[in-house]
Amino acid sequence: MATEIKQKEIQEIKSLTERYATNTSLVAALLATITFAAAFTLPGGFSNDPSDAGLPIFSRKAAFQVFLISDTIAMCSSLAVAFLCVLTTWEDLEFLLNYRKTTSPLMWCAYAATSLAFGTGLFTVMAPKNLWLAIIILLVCIILPFLSKIIGDWPMIMLRVRVGRLFRPDLVPTI
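That's the Ankyrin repeat family protein sequence above. Prediction below.
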């Protein structure tokens, strides 16, 4: 009877992890698509000047360079998650649990970098004419990933605080 219960728990964990892997691979593929497209539809477009023909208009601006770097980080992170999903072996429970530990930070990195790329792309285009709006948009795009991370992790943070304070502080690292 105990082995039956354990087998049911293992199947439930596998099912939840498979669903997580499916969802993350879908989101990762969407992020990779968006960031790939953003790299070729650059903010400001391309120069028509014969000496700089084909080069991005804003290539020398710092915000544009941050856009390119963050877009690249977002694309590489999301592609890594999608690639790991392809490698996932659904039968190995240990691998599935490690998959989540690996892909969760990569997805957050892709999300944060995508948000930063969006903000810096808009900043690059808008700052010359409307600096105050460009700054607000950039600040929102920088703060949002961190705020969502804190809100998402808040229940676990509170649990760690309560366990550490009320029960056994040595258990906190395992939570």
